[in-house]
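Hi R.,

Here's the chain you asked about this morning:
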Amino acid sequence: MPKQSPVPDELTKPFWDGCNEGRLVLQNCKSCNLFNFPAKTACTRCGSGDNFEWREVKGLGKITGYGVVNDSRIRQLQEQQPFNLAVISLYEDPEILFYSHLPGLPANEVPIGADVEVFFEDTPATGQKVPEWRLR
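And here is the predicted structure, written out as tokens:
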């Protein structure tokens, strides 16, 4: 399924650079040990804005919910309809959520609670890699 090409900015560049290297890295507050995703200028828990690091996570999680898109307004996705839009919760921090089309899984055949792992797909416009998820 074609993906839109994100344009990294100064705040998100470490995340997207990690994707290009095949690694899932998240902003982590060293003051209170909270992952912030997407990246923030200040920690959502303690408010610190100058005590961040980028930490690699394993990229493992589970499917916590999904919907099926039958009528997308995004033209480049319309040819793939219907398709899954699953919610992925990371094992390292269940409050961090990603969305996935679950490539290879037929629409409406999503096993809630199933284990998934991240992989990275190129986007056609820029070649920027983006995280995607598949069953383990």
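One quick note: The chain has two helices and eight strands.

Cheers,
M.
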